């Protein structure tokens, strides 16, 4: 009222630009965006450009070379190893996660298993390969102990350094990863749902067939796809165990980049990497769709 009758008091003017401020809330995510840009987007762009680049300019020869027999065999072997280790890791990890979920949620066992899985899921590379060589390798103490008792696990050849051995080694970090990913889905199962099933006359089979099974299926399949992508992109462990040939795609890429026999082919290596990017992108898209469906009833 005083301001309305006093000419010395000036009414505040509205900002000429409508008072809109430049949003700054995204600045907190700037380090993450820079990290993703440098270590994910930039390498992807380099791989895509390199896959279509030749000595004389753009070319499709690197892509057409992917139909060579040894390249197809490398992709088939990688897909088989990744699928086998993902299925074995998913089933074993799901059973272990269920055993943990049915226990005391604040108990020591759950905390110990969760902590151990967090460490073991990241245990890979040369260290993991050496651990298997030292235990069940040709001169590993378990292999020698079994051999002294008349059981030779390598009677038909040292399969540990071949593709079947990779499946066994990969499951070492696939099972803990499955526990970490699948345990939240099991925690989302309400005990009231089983009670409701039993109150309607249903048994354990009906509960898992019509209630828990359909609810956990998307989470289980999504976790299995994550394990597949994890094994498909693994390199260091396989490189430490297998040093000959191009049995899987990551090792083939390394050989084409660092060949000491004059057979290096960076263009084909980047075409192989582009093939891996496409496969992993498809798998992770399916994983994201399944996770979205799972999150509806986990809220």
Describe what you observe in this structure:
- The structure is a single chain.
- The radius of gyration is 27 Å and the shape is globular.
- A two-stranded antiparallel ribbon has the order 1-2.
- Strand 1 and strand 2 form a beta hairpin.
- Helices cover 69% and strands 1% of the residues.
- Helix 5 (108-120) packs across helix 8.
- The protein contains 13 helices and 2 strands.
- The relative contact order is 0.12.
- The chain has helices at residues 2-5, 30-51, 61-64, 69-101, 108-120, 126-136, 141-148, 163-187, 191-199, 204-232, 236-241, 249-258, 266-298, and strands at 53-54, 57-58.
- It is mainly α and 299 residues long.
SSE inventory with pairings:
Elements (H helix, E strand, L loop, with lengths): L1 H4 L24 H22 L1 E2 L2 E2 L2 H4 L4 H33 L6 H13 L5 H11 L4 H8 L14 H25 L3 H9 L4 H29 L3 H6 L7 H10 L7 H33 L1
Antiparallel strand pairs: 1-2
Helix pairs in contact: 2-13, 4-8, 4-10, 5-8, 8-10, 9-10, 10-13, 12-13
Q: Which bin fits the share of residues in helices? A: 55-70%
- What's the total count of β strands? 2
Rg of Cα set: 27 Å
Unreliable spans are none
- Characterize the main sheet: 2 strands, antiparallel
Summing up helix and strand content along with how strands pair, one would put the structural category as mainly alpha
What is the residue-mean pLDDT, rounded to a whole number?
A: 86
H-E order:
HHEEHHHHHHHHHHH
Beta-strand portion reads under 5%
Major sheet: arrangement of strands: 1-2
Give the termini distance in whole angstroms. Answer: 52 Å
Number of helices, counting only DSSP H or I runs of 4 residues or more: 13
Overall outline: globular
């Amino acid at each position: 009222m005083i301001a309305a009758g006093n000419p010395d008091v000036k009414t505040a003017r509205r900002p000429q630009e409508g008072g809109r401020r430049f949003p700054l809330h995204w600045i907190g995510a700037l380090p993450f965006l820079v990290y993703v840009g440098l270590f994910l987007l930039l390498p992807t762009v380099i791989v895509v450009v390199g896959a279509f680049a030749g000595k004389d300019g753009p070319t499709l020869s690197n892509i057409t070379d992917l139909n060579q027999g040894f390249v197809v065999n490398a992709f088939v072997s990688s897909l088989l190893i990744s699928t086998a280790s993902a299925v074995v890791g998913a089933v074993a990890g799901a059973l272990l996660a269920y055993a943990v979920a049915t226990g005391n949620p604040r108990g020591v066992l759950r905390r110990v298993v969760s902590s151990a899985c967090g460490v073991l899921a990241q245990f890979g590379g040369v260290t993991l390969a050496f651990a298997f060589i030292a235990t069940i390798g040709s001169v590993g103490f378990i292999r020698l102990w079994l051999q002294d008792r008349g059981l030779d696990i390598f009677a038909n050849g040292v399969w540990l350094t071949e593709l079947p051995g990779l499946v066994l080694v990969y499951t070492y970090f696939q099972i803990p990863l499955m526990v970490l990913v699948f345990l939240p889905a099991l925690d989302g199962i309400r005990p009231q749902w089983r009670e409701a099933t039993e109150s309607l006359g249903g048994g354990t089979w009906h509960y898992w067939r019509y209630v828990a099974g359909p609810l956990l299926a998307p989470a289980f399949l999504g976790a299995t796809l994550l394990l597949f992508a994890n094994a498909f992109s693994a390199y260091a462990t396989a490189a430490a165990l297998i040093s000959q040939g191009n049995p899987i795609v990551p090792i083939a890429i390394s050989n084409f980049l660092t060949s000491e026999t004059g057979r290096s082919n960076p263009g084909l290596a980047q075409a192989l990497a582009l093939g891996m990017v496409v496969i992993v992108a498809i798998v992770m898209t399916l994983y994201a769709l399944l996770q979205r469906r799972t999150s509806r009833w986990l809220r």
